[in-house]
Hints:
The structure holds 2 protein chains of 2 kinds. Chain A is of the alpha/beta class. Chain A has 3 domains: 99 residues, Fumarate Reductase Iron-sulfur Protein, Chain B, domain 2 (Orthogonal Bundle), CATH 1.10.1060; 154 residues, Rossmann fold (3-Layer(aba) Sandwich); 128 residues, 3-Layer(aba) Sandwich (Rossmann fold), CATH 3.40.50. Chain A is built from 20 helices and 8 strands. In chain A, helix 9 packs across helix 20 and helix 13 crosses helix 16. Chain A starts with 19 loop residues before the first helix and ends with a helix. Chain B has 2 domains: 172 residues, HUPs (Rossmann fold, 3-Layer(aba) Sandwich); 123 residues, TPP-binding domain (Rossmann fold, 3-Layer(aba) Sandwich). At the A-B interface, helix 17 and helix 19 of A face helix 5 of B. The complex binds flavin-adenine dinucleotide (FAD) and iron/sulfur cluster (2 copies). Flavin-adenine dinucleotide sits at the interface of chains B and A.
Amino acid sequence: MIVELDAIRGVSLDTIYDSPEGKLIQTCIQCGTCSGTCPYGEYMEYPPRRIIKLLQHGLVDKVFDTDSMLKCVNCYACMMKCPREIHLTEVLLQLVKEQTVIKLPVVPPELQKALENNYRYGNPMGESGRKRANWVQTSSVPIRILSQNPEPVDVLWFVESYPAFHPRGQDTCRAIAKILNALGVDFAILGNEEKSAGECGLLSWESGLAEALVDYNMAIFSKYKFNRIITSDPHALDAFNFRYRMYGFKGSITHIVPFIIENIDKLKPMLHKTLGYSVTYHDSCCLGRHNGYYDEPRALLKAIPGIKLIEMVHNRINTLCCGGGGGGMWLDTYFKSQNMERLSDRRIKEAIDTGADVLAVACPYEIPRFEDALKVAGYDKKMVVRDIMELVSEAMED
Amino acid sequence: MNNSILILIEHLKDAIADISFEMLGIGRKIADSFNGSLHAVVLGKDINKFLPELGIADSIFVADDEKLEMASPETIADIIKSIIEIKGISITILGGTNTAAGVGPILSSKLKLPYLNFCKNIRVEGDNIIVTNQLFGGKILSDVKLDGMKGIISVNPGSFPSDAGKASKVVPVVEIDLSQIKIKNYFKKYIEPEAGDVDITKENVLVSVGRGIENADNLSLAEDLIGVLGGAISASRPVIDQGWLPLSRQVGKSGMTVKPKLYFALGISGAPEHVEGMKDSDCIVAINKDPAAPIFNVAHYGVCGDLLEIVPSLTEKLKAKKG
Ligand SMILES: Cc1cc2nc3c(=O)[nH]c(=O)nc-3n(C[C@H](O)[C@H](O)[C@H](O)COP(=O)(O)OP(=O)(O)OC[C@H]3O[C@@H](n4cnc5c(N)ncnc54)[C@H](O)[C@@H]3O)c2cc1C
Ligand code: SF4
Ligand code: SF4
C-alpha cells in the first residue's frame, strides 16, 4: 500500500487537504487503532489519532510544541493497521516530524551529530568516506568496485553505511559477497563513492539533507550501467523505493533476501552443512510491514539444513519495532531521559521467551541493537544475533 | 579616518572578555605600523565601568541602552555598519565567538566587504595586511591579502596575547546615535545551566568500567584507583543502564565523546558504540580477561586478566610509588 507519488508530491501541512492524501485523512473515523498499536503511543502527548483531530480543527501547530513526533520510530504499525488506509507514517507524520524538529528548543545531541555526520562524511557514524570500502580487503572472494572497473554490471550492490563501517555489519557483507559469488551473480559495489542513502525516517527531520544525499547518489548511479540494485539494509530499500522515486529515481531495487530467494534453487545444493540451531526471526519494520517481505526471510531460513524456526508472539504485520528506525538509532539517550523503555530491550524478551539459540535478523541496525539488548537482559551467553546471510554463508561451509 | 581599525568589545556579566584584549593588542600593533588609529565599540547596559580598561584605543564608541545588553547579531551589525559608514573605518575586527559569530556575515553582505573567518594571525607586509586563516578545522592554513585594506576579520580566541591589549588611560568617548537603528530582538534574561555532575569530557584521567565490574559494590575498585591517579569514573552503557552511575558518565555513541590523556577501560569489551566515544584518547589502557576482546584493538596497553585482582594491586603499587 505504498502511497501513490502524485498524492504527496509538494504537499505541505498547509495544503494537505487539497491533496488526495488530505481527502483520505478526512475519512479518519477516530478509531484510535493507530495510537493503540504505536509502540511509544503511551509516551506521546499527541499520538497519530490526536494529530488528525487537531489537523481537522486547524490546531496542528500544538503538536509542534511537544516532542510527540520525536518519539515516532517510523515503524509503520499505525499506517499498516489503519482501517482507512491513511498513509500516516509516509506522509502526515513526516510533515509533522520536520516541524517538530524545527521547533524543538534543543535537538538531542546524538541525533544532531548523526545528521551532521551524514552531511559531512556521508555516513551517520562520522567515519572517513575514504574508508568506506576498506572491508572489501577482508572478503574471501573478489569484489568489483565500479570506480576502478566501470564496465556495465548486472547487479549493483548498495552496501550502505552500517554494513560498510560497523564490524558486525561487515560480517554480513563478507557473507553476502561469498553467497553472490557462489551463485555466479555479476555484481559490483560503488566503494568509496557511495554515501548514505538517507534513511527515510532519520532524514524526515531534515529534508534538505535528504535531498542532498538523493542528488548525490542519483548522480553516482547515472555514471554507471547496471540492471538492478540490491541492498541488505531495509532502510535503504525504503529510501530508494519511496523517497528517491519522488525525485525521479526509476531503477529497480530489491532487498538481498528476496533476491537470494529468486535464486533459491541454485543455492539449495550449496547448503550442505547442517546447522542444528533453533532460530527465531525478527521482522524488520521496513522489510516486513512496509515492503511486505514476510515469507521470503522464513523461506530462506527453512532452506538451511537443520534450522528449526520458532515464531515470537508478535510476528509479521504485528512485529515489534527494535526502536532503531525514524532516527531512533540516535535517540536512545533521549528516550532514556524520558523514562521510555528501549524497544530493543522490550523485543528481546519475546525472543528469549522462544528459547531459541539464534535471533535471526535482516537489517544491519538490529545486530548491534539486539546484541546490546541481550547483554542488558543478561542473556548474551545463551542467545546470539545473526544476520540471515551469515547463517546462509555458514551453511555453505564444508 | 584613514587606516583605522575598529574592535567590537565583548563583555559578559560585568567583565570584559579576554578576546577583547587580544583584539585590542593586535589591533594596536597593526594600526601603529600604518600610523593609523584604533577604535573600540562597546554596546550594552551600564557599560561606563568598562571604559577605563580600554585605554589602548584612541577613541571609544559607546551605546548605553537596556535593549543592547547581549544584542542580537542583526542589531550589532546595524550599529557597526553605521560607524563604518560615518567614520570611514577600514578594518573591523570581531571575536570568533558565539557572541559575534553572526555579525561578520551580515556586515560583509550589507557593506560588500570581504569577511575573513577563523583568523589565527594578522601581519603587515609592506603596504599590505596579510591574514592567516584556519581552514578545515585547522588542517590547512591560508594567507589572504586584504585588498584595498578594507574588510572584516574574525579572530579565533587564544590567537594573540591579551596583555598586549591592556592599558588604563582616559580616551575620548563618542556616543553612537541610535535613532536610525531598529532593535527587533532583545535580550530578556540570562539562564545559568544547572550545576550538573562532573563533566567527563574535561577530565585528564578517566577510569571507565564495563560489565566486567560485575556489581555496583565493585565500583569502589575504580574509585580507589582514581584516589591515587586523580580523574573521574565513567562507564559503558550497560553499567549506566543498571543505574550504578548517572547518564552523565556514559562514554560512547549515545553518551559523551571523551579524549582524556589517560583512559582506563576496565571490563569493557570495546563494542563499536563504546569505542566511538573514546578512541581518540591519548593513552588507552585496557584490562580484560578475554584476549579476543576488541578493546585490545584500540588500546595502547593491554592487560589480559581478572580486573578484580589486577586493579587493587595496581592501586597499591601506584600508592607505594607515590609514597
Ligand atoms: C544504538 C546504540 C547505541 C549505543 N551507545 C553506547 C554508548 O554510548 N556507550 C556504550 O558503552 N555502549 C553503547 N551501546 C552498547 C554497546 O553496543 C555494547 O553493548 C556495550 O558497550 C557493552 O558494554 P560492556 O563492554 O561493558 O559489556 P560487554 O560487551 O558485556 O563486555 C564486558 C567485558 O568485560 C570482560 N570481563 C568480564 N569479567 C571480567 C573480569 N573479571 N576482569 C576483566 N574483564 C572482565 C569481558 O571479557 C567482556 O569483554 C550502544 C548500542 C546501541 C545499539
Ligand atoms: S487508525 Fe486510521 S482511522 Fe483510526 S484513528 Fe488512526 S488514522 Fe484515524
Ligand atoms: S510509525 Fe510507529 S512509532 Fe510512528 S506513530 Fe506510527 S506506530 Fe507510532
